[in-house]
Amino acid sequence: MDFSSKLLENAVNEVSQLPGIGKRTALRLVLHLLRQPKEQTGYLTRALDNLVTDIKLCKNCYNISDVELCEICSSHKRDETTICVVEDVRDVMAIENTAQFQGMYHVLGGKISPMEGIGPNNLQIESLVDKVKAGKVKELVFALSSTMEGDTTNFYIYKQVKDLDIKISAIARGISVGDELEYADEVTLGRSILNRIPFENSLRQ
Ligand SMILES: [Zn+2]
Question: Which candidate, 136, 137, 159, 156, places its Cα nearest to that of 148?
Answer without folding.
Answer: 156
